[in-house]
Amino acid sequence: MIIKRILTVFTAFALYAFASPVSAQSQNFKIGKNLDIQMNVLREIAMLYVDSVDVDSLVTQNTINMLASLDPYTVLIPDEERESLELLTTGSYGGIGAIIRKNGENVLIAEVYEGSPAAKAGLIDGDQIIGIDGVKVAPLPIDECSAKMRGPSGTEVSFTIKKLRSGDTIELNIKREKIHIPDVVFYGMVEDSVGYIRITGFTMGGAQDVRKALLHLKENPALKRVVLDLRGNGGGILDEAVEIVSLFVPRNTLVVSSKGKVKQADINYYTASEPVDLEIPLVVMVNSASASSSEIVAGALQDLDRATILGTRTFGKGLVQSIRDVGYNNRIKITTAKYYTPSGRCVQAIDYSQRNEDGSVGHIPDSLMKPFKTLVKGRTVYDGGGIMPDVEVLPQEYSRPVVSLVYSELMHEYSIEYSRGHETIEKPSSFSLTDQEYDQFVEWAAKKEFDHRTASEVELDKLKVVAGKEETDLNVEKELENLVSLLGRSKSQMLVERKGEIKPLLEEEIVNRYYYQRGRAEIMLRNDIQFERAKEVEVL
Questions:
Q1: 10 Å Cβ neighbour count for 456?
Q2: How far apart are CA 392 and CA 287, in angstroms?
Q3: Considering the entire predicted model, what is its pTM?
Q4: Ordered alpha helix ranges (H), 76-205
Q5: Contact yes or no for 325/331 (Cβ under 8 A)
């Protein structure tokens, strides 16, 4: 079947090639020749290869590898991933609104979305799923469990649930709905005069949520400043970014331009709506995970001298992708253009293969960064790799054992244990663990497995290995052992000594169990050194 498909594609392509202008014949001939070679190779494999071969999988993987050689964002979207595509573009999917995870053989509710069918049915984080539609889930992979929970809006799915707090086993029928993950996860007056809006994506209709949040903030006569938080926002639909910029600048203002190989990709995007506010001081917070549409918003407001950009340099993704149908319900997300801010700069990292571990822009020599001028005040800004903030403020750094504790998910696990014994807690702005409650966490976590070594202990362990291989004398080995004894800390000691780092993170996890992502976003601001600066920084 797959070879017939390739023959069909090749025949259609060949007909197209003969109808093309002479200038395109050479390129089309090369493509046709390589497709012919690939088809012949597949035929030989299918007929002669010593073991059985899944030719469908072979061709799909070949396509994936081919696209990966172009850039990180041009990818194949198979038919079976259409729900992921819908979630990417609309922020919506059909289901009950809950995230699940495996803990040994148990399938647990890990997070429930606010207002979702799961929340309405009384499911909470830590509830155990025993069966879905009469099928026991213990032996099933987690992806298969998730697939059973998803489905068209309006259909029902049945669950056998063991409740966290009571331990009772109950039967539930939940009607699936269209689950929408909002782009604005939290907004509000954080202090008497500071309004805050956290934007986590750019999906269809997201700009309207930002507009509503801004209008609600403006109802407060004490409002003196607005902070847009785009940290960790990986982007989304370009039109939504343009709509968000339109809230703060005059109508018919150029926000971004795209330029590609074909003329249809060359587009200028202007604001089409009347602004909500042209005067209020505006701060936009960004970091290395602010990408794509986030960079359009930050770059445009910076170029137009409408906002002060604060934080760290953004990701550096100035490429535009389009979704194209390639047959049999398969699609490709293909890079078709680069985008440029109003001053004319492209924020795409010059070499997207040279990245930091988190994927953000690596070091770019000054010689490769071209200066541009902002359009109102003539300030100097640069291209070549993300949006550089007007005010650089580094985030809080965490010690190695605390990072290890976070990645072990022990704080998430303990937050569920905490909620087992507490049906309610105070609101996010005032919730705090008592010293006694933190001591209980220390006692619990000290019995768990996680790497609690400091960075110096890790280096010392490496030195011991090297010394052992070099057969150093006994005195050196004794000195190393003394150092180990001097630097070493038990888990309990580490958890007590790092209380200042750990306690706020643990409180965030606990609040999330009761007040969802909205509550987490609110409580995070209490210990946010970048936000503290955003509240007081001099704005343009």
A1: 11
A2: 10
A3: 0.86
A4: 82-90, 117-120, 142-149
A5: yes
Q: What is the mean pLDDT of the chain?
A: 88
Report whether CATH 2.30.42.10 matches the domain 92-180. Answer: yes
DSSP string computed for 128-161: EEEEETTEE-TTS-HHHHHHHH---TT-EEEEEE
Q: What do you get for the CA distance between the two ends of the chain, in Å?
A: 62
Residue 270 reports pLDDT greater than 90: yes
**pLDDT score of 358 more than 80:** no
Sign of the Cα torsion 20, 24, 26, 28 reads negative
* pLDDT single digits (tens) 28-74: 888 888 888 888 988 888 888 889 889 888 888 888 899 988 888 89
Residue in the block written with tokens 């209709």: 205
pLDDT in tens, 495-524: 999 999 999 999 999 999 999 999 999 999
Q: Which CATH number is 184-322+337-395's, of 3.30.420.270, 3.40.50.970, 3.50.50.60, 3.90.226.10? A: 3.90.226.10
The size of the chain, in residues, is 540
Q: Mind telling me the catalytic residues?
A: 292, 303, 317
